[in-house]
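Schema walk-through. Below, the input block comes first and the output block second. Nothing else is stored per chain. Lengths vary across the set, and this one has 283 residues.
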Amino acid sequence: MKNSRRFLTLIGLPSIYLFLLFILPVGLMVIFSFREGTTGAARDSFTLDHYITFINSRPFQRLLWQSAGISFLVAVIANSLAYPLAYYLAFQAGSQKNTLMMLLIIPTWTSYLLRIFAWKLILGSTGLLNSVLLLLGVIETLSPILIYSRAAVMVTLIYVWIPFAMLPIFSSLERIDRYLLEAAADLGCTRLEAFLRITLPLSLPGVVAGFFFAFIPTLGEFVTPLLVGGAQGSMYGNLIQDQFMRALNWPMGSVMSLSMLLIVLVFMFLLTRLGPLSDLLGL
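--- output ---
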């Protein structure tokens, strides 16, 4: 009984948090997606018109899949860059591990908008990138190269999510028994062979978790494309924001939000086919 009460006490607050901030909003979006009209002239009658409109709208679907592709690339690249950092911290940093970890995490404590504006200044016409290229003689005049493009959006998002992708990878690497690596060396494995046969497979749960840490929020991103992407770098999240805030078409915005959630669930399902979700996430 004590264990049951302790379990209910520990799980109670997170359950309330999950219900209020996830389940309830998703439920409201499902209800709105079937309402006729918009929020300004909403009627309680049931309709499938918004779903039909979305299915027949090729631009909506094209932008959804393009945003999913961008999010996938951002997550893959962020993980690829985060893995060497996590590996160095786990195996090579020694007594400097905590100090280096703090230096990597401290920038995430600053305002998200400030970091985005910093990259807007770096990639702008008179920013650091163009100044360096002009100094090296690569370009002759200052001109926008990456700013207001999808490349600028990807570069900024990769920078933002590298620390978050690194944390679960570092946690997985920290849990690896060092005696396994010593045994591999005794059996004649080179460092590369030991990495490919022991370290990498055992760290895959952290890699998968890091992938989702970057993929899920990036798929619904609208602030970064708005500030550094411009018209050329718009993503699916910008379209959803326009439906809710400008067009005031909450039913259509709800349909588009649910379709984005479906993409995330499909990725989760595909990963669960590879093994138990708890194993993949290192739980």
